[in-house]
Amino acid sequence: MKKLNYTEDLLRVIFFWIGIFFFVSGVLSFLGILKPAVNSGIQNPDMLGTVFSITGVLMCIISAALGIYTAKLDKLHLQLIENGTKVKGLVEKIYLQKYTRYRRQIPYRILYSFTYHDKVYYHRSRLVWEKPNLKKGDLITVYVNNLGKSTVYNCNEAV
After folding, report:
1. Segments of the chain with pLDDT less than 70
2. Owning domain of residue 62
3. Domain stops at, among 77, 103, 126
4. What is the pTM of this model?
């Protein structure tokens, strides 16, 4: 499976699997296999199945929306690399994104700044899964468009 590029990608996967779990639980409740607990607020298995199924479908819809959003971010990333203006950026900070973990790996993030049309921008990179060979103060290549959107293509090399 491909590495995730954004935190939203991870949320998409989480929402998808939780949505599937709720939907399957709803179907099992409709079939009478999953019964409500004695102290449950909903005692009717059909009502419980409806609630679980709707919750599952809503979570899958959220997952799909996050998928569309990350696809647009990937498309923007590729457009910036192909058509964006190349400028020099300065690495401000490199850190582990501790609360994001996928397949027992924790990604890095690079905070960088650059000047474009006499305005200073501060952005962060996509998720970087290998330790970047950079340190604070290194120059990197940044691709930017006229709206100030930017991306870094190779996060492992200083300029």
Report:
1. 1, 154-159
2. 7-77
3. 77
4. 0.82
